[in-house]
Design goal:
This protein is mostly helical. Helix content is 67%, strand content 5%. It has a three-stranded antiparallel β-sheet with strand order 1-2-3, covered by helices on one side. It is globular, with a radius of gyration of 22 Å.
Length: 247
């Protein structure tokens, strides 16, 4: 997850704590404080050397647990469940997505379908998309894991910040929609990559693949998610009754 997005999660968690700072119970124990201090020290020591990418994703959540334990002990962790959920979704879903399943074949299949229905003579072979004598490999980095995990985190951010008087079944629509949007936006990106390679436009390919163009799809995904949240608010939030003025 980009540093700016990670900072947004940290800022939101800090805001939620500041908002109810007078209601928190700062009661810890020697064991809890020792545990939190050791865990936080280990995390900080780890960052002084080489850090695997997966460690950087789980670092915010573990640091949050350490700080919360030092402040309020083991029993007080439940007071920080919103903040810990936010820090969990700031990076861990990307690790889980990449570890549990590789959606690259499914991404290639959907991108092939998009190209085929658009009139392109395309075929698929596993994670390879064959178009006009060229072949594009959909490896794990282009599978959509990043887009899906980022939008999933943003959906949790919306749920924590917006006062939505909904049922849980209604709230679940937002993270489900976030994952679906992230997947489909990435499918469109992969389809565009295949077209650019087939047309030998390698400079444009590099721009949309790893350059600034790749950020455009992130913006599109975020805007679509915001649109879905706005529509759901209009749909599920009851309108305030209009008061009749007394004659």
């Amino acid at each position: 997850m980009p540093l700016s997005t990670s900072m947004l999660f940290w800022a939101t968690a800090a805001y939620l704590i500041w908002e109810r700072q007078d209601k928190l119970q700062y009661q810890t124990s020697l064991v809890a404080s020792l545990f939190g201090t050791i865990l936080l020290s280990m995390l900080l020591l780890k960052t002084t050397g080489y850090c695997e990418e997966s460690f950087l994703f789980i670092y915010p959540f573990l640091a949050g647990i350490a700080i919360a334990t030092i402040a309020s002990g083991f029993r007080g962790l439940k007071e920080y469940w919103r903040e810990l959920v936010l820090l969990f979704f700031s990076g861990i879903p990307e690790v889980l997505f990449a570890t549990l399943a590789d959606p690259s074949p499914v991404t290639a299949q959907f991108a092939t379908a998009v190209l085929w229905y658009s009139g392109w003579p395309v075929t698929q072979n596993g994670i390879y998309i064959n178009l006009a004598g060229t072949s594009v490999q959909v490896y794990s980095g282009c599978s959509g894991v990043v887009a899906m995990s980022q939008l999933l985190g943003m959906s949790v951010l919306f749920l924590m910040l917006l006062p939505l008087p909904w049922k849980w079944s209604q709230k679940l629509i937002i993270p489900i929609a976030a994952v679906a949007i992230g997947f489909m936006v990435n499918v469109a990106r992969v389809a565009l990559m295949a077209i650019l390679v087939a047309q030998k436009q390698m400079e444009s390919f590099e721009y949309w693949h790893e350059g600034s163009g790749s950020l455009v799809f992130s913006v599109i995904g975020t805007m679509l998610l915001v649109g879905v949240v706005w529509l759901l608010i209009k749909l599920f939030t009851p309108a305030s009754p209009v008061r009749e003025e007394a004659e």
